[in-house]
Amino acid sequence: MIDKELNNTLKIIDFGTSIQIKENEVLTNMHGTSYYIAPEVLAKKYNKKCDVWSIGVIMFILLSGKPPFDGKDDNEITNNVKIGTYSMTSKVWQDISKDAKELITMMLTKDPNHRISAREAISHPWF
Hints:
Elements: H1 39-42, H2 49-64, H3 74-83, H4 98-107, H5 118-122
Helix pairs in contact: 2-4
């Protein structure tokens, strides 16, 4: 029996476009899903830090239950991603640790040159 009150959703992820890139390689092909795509991917000039952004979005959703960049359709969502502003002021964030919020903020830094690296992220005190 399925409990519809839980509103559970199973998502399957396709890694068909995943690749390994070199340390300073810059990519220009746009791939991704509007909720999780980094602003620099939308600009078609990105490196591996785009994945840190996407993981930051996933952490935001897992901790709050809502995406940081929302909209009524893909166009509105991607416009909000390009703007890069989000809020952690709703009631749910009151119970989230300072370290978790700090890490997400470092991962969702719009400028990838100032964004935390994956190596730095896994060394963060929240982990």
